[in-house]
Amino acid sequence: MTAIVRILRRRPAAPLGAAAVVFLLAGSLLSGQFAQQTVSGLASGGIYASLAVAIVLIYRATQVINFAQGGMAMFTTYVAWELMQQGYGRWSAYLLAIVIAFAGGVLLERTVLRPVENAPAVTTVIVTIGLLVTFNGLAGWIWSAQIRPFRGPFPTRPIHVGGVAFSLQDIGTIAVALGAVTVLWALFRFTRIGLSLRAAASQPAAARLVGIRVGWMLALGWGLAAALGAVSGILVAPVVFLQPNMMDAILIYAFAAAVLGGIDSPLGAVVGGLTLGVVLNLVGTYIHAATAELRLPIALALLLVVLLVKPSGLLGRTAVRKV
Amino acid sequence: MRGVFNYVAAAGVAVGLAVLPLLTSGYHQLEWAYVGVYACAILGLNVLTGYTGQISLGHGAFMAVGGYTAALFTENRLFNTSLTLGLPHLNPLLTLPLAGAIAGVIGLALGVPALRLSGLYLALATFAVAVSVPSIAKRFPGQTGGTTGIVLDVHTGRWLYEVTWSSAAVLFVLVWALLRGRTGRAFRAVRDSETAAVSCGVDLAVYKTLAFGVSAACAGVAGALLALIAGYANPDTFPLLLSLTILIGAVVAGLGSLWGVLVGAAFVEFLPVYAQQVSKQAPSVVYGVALVAIMIVLPTGFAGLVRRVLRAGS
Question: Residue A127 has what pLDDT?
C-alpha cells in the first residue's frame, strides 16, 4: 500500500495514464456507444494535440505564449488552398504550404518578436494577439470570409469496425499528431541542432558562449511551430471547413491541452490533447446536465482542477519556488 | 515638485472631462462613456498585473458578473418576457457599488485558488474562466435570459457619460489611496520579488488575494456601466475579446501607472474607429499591425515612454 502511494507521489502520471487506458478499453468492450465516443474523441484530441505541440514548441524556445498560433495555421491552410486553386497537386500544395509556413515562422520571429525579446512577458502576449488579429483580417481580405470546402489528405468516408464508425481522417489525424511529436522528440534528443535548440532555450547566455547562434535557434523554434501549425490547419480544415475563424475554438482547446499536459512538455501536449478530446465526448454523452453550451466550461473546469492539484500540468516540470 | 505637478495634471484632466460633454454631440458622449468603462476595467487590471505582477486574461468574466448584477437588479425582466426573478428593483446608480461588491467577493474567492498558480499558468487559467462565462450564461436562460439576455432602460448619452466618469473618478481616488500607502507598497514588493517581500513580513497569500478582489471589484463596476450603456446584458456584451481588449489597454497604457490608464482606455476605444477610417476593407489588419508596431516601439507602454523621457530630462 505504502509502495503504491510512493509511486503515485513520485510519478503520478504513469499509473494514472495506465488506469485511464484500462478504463477506456473496458468501457469500449462493454458498450458500442462508449467505444464510438472514445474513438471520435481521440480524433478531435489529435487535432488539439497538434496545435498544442506547436504552442509548447514556441513556449520552450522563447517563453512566449503564442496567441497567433491558430491564426498562423489558418493562414497557411489558405495558402495550401490557393496553391491547389493554382493547379498544384494536393500533396505538393500541402508540402509547399508547410515549407512556406516554416519560412514565415522564422521571418516572424526575426522581424516582429526579436525587437520585444527582452520586453515583459505580457508585452509579447499583446504582440501575438496583434498578429492573430492581423492574420484573421488578412485572410478575410484576401480570400473573403466565405466558408469553403477543403480537400484533406485523408478520405473522410466512414469505415465500420465492430459497430464503431470512424474514418481514415480520424486515424490519420491521431497518427500525424503522434508522428509529429516523435519526430520532434528525436530531433531534440538525438541531433546536434536539437541540442542547440534546448541549450538556447534553457541557458541563452551560456549557449552563446559555446558558439550557438541563439537568435537563429529561437527563429528555428518559431519556424518548426509554424510548420506544425500548418499541419494541424490542413488536418482541421476538411472537418470545420476553411474560414478565417476556423481555428479560434481549436486554439482555446489547444491552450487547455498544452496547460493540462504541462506547458513545457511536447509529450504532455499530446496526452493533454487526447485526454481533452475523449473527456469532452464522454462527458457530453453520459452527463445529461452537460449540454452543448457547457462543453467548453466543463473542459476548462477539468483544466482548473488539474492545475490546482498539479500547478505545472500533468507532465510539466515543476519549477522550484522559494516562497 | 513632481507631486504638485501630478495634482495639477489630475485636476486638469478632471476639468477637461467635465467640460467635454458640453462641447460634443450625443454620439461622441457615448464614445467617451465607453472610454470611461474601459478606464475602470483597465484600472482594475492594473492593480493586479501592474502593481502586483499577476497576469489575468479573464477580466471580462468579472465585468460580466458586474453587468448581469446591474441588469438583474434594475430590470430583472428577460428579453421578450414579463418573467421576473423576485429581486428588488434598484436605482441603476445603486447597482454600481453592488456590482463592484459582488464581483469583488468573487474575485477574492477566485484569488485563493489562483495562489497556487503563477505566471502564464495563471494567465491561461483566468483565460479559461473568461471563455466559460458566456457559455454558462447561455446555459441558464431562466436566470440570465440566455442568448438574448436582459434588457435595461435606455438612458441619454449625457447621463451615461456623467455616471461613467463619476464612477471612474471615485474608483481612481479609492485605488490611488489604496496604492499610495502600506498596501500599495506590499503589492509592489510582491511584484518585484516575492522572496524579498516575504522576508520583510509581507503575507503573500493575503496581498495577492486582496489584489484579485480589488481588481475584480473595479472590473465589476466597469461591467455594470457597460450594461447600462449598451442597454442590455447578454453573452455578446462580454465576449472573450473584451478580456483581451482590457489587457491590450493596460499594456499600451503602461503597467504600474495610474494616469496611463486613461491613455490605454482611449486607445482601445478609438484605435478600431481609426482603423476603420484608414482601410474599409481590412480594418483589423490595420488594428493588428498598429498594435504590433506600438508594442515594438513602446514595449513598456506610454507610461514607460514618459518615464524614460523624464529620466533623460533630469
Answer: 93
Residue A65 pLDDT grade (very low, low, confident, very high; cuts 50, 70, 90)? confident
Shortest distance between the Cα of B296 and any Cα of chain A, in A, equals 6
Which domains are delineated in chain A? 41-309 (1.10.3470)
Q: Is A123 on the interface with B (CB under 8 A)?
A: yes
For residues B308 and B254, the answer to whether their CB atoms sit within 8 Å is: no
Nearest 10 degrees: CA dihedral of B293, B295, B297, B301?
Answer: 140
> B116 — phi, psi (to 5°)?
-75, -20
- E-strand stretches of chain A: 158-161, 164-167
d(CA B111, CA A188): 38
Asked if A302 has any chain B CB less than 8 Å from its own CB, the reply is no
What ipTM is given for this predicted complex? Answer: 0.85
pLDDT of residue A2: 64
A20 to chain B, any CB pair closer than 8 A? The answer is no
CA distance B99 to B63: 9
Q: Least CB-CB distance to B132: which of A255, A296, A321?
A: A296
Q: Would you kindly state where each structural domain of chain B is located, as residue ranges?
A: 2-239
Q: Is the predicted pLDDT of residue A299 greater than 80, yes or no?
A: no
Is B59 in contact with B45 (CB distance < 8 Å)? yes
Sequence-distant (6+) residues with CB within 8 A of B265 are: B35, B36, B37, B38, B39, B42, B249, B253
Cβ pair A133:B255 closer than 8 A: no
Cell for B164? Answer: 461613467
| B291: chain A residues, CB-CB within 8 Å | 126-127, 129-130, 133
pLDDT in tens, A144-186: 888 888 888 888 778 887 777 778 888 888 888 888 888 888 8
Helix (H, G, I), strand (E, B) or coil at B89: coil
Residue type for position A97 = A
A141 close contact with B: CB closer than 8 A = yes
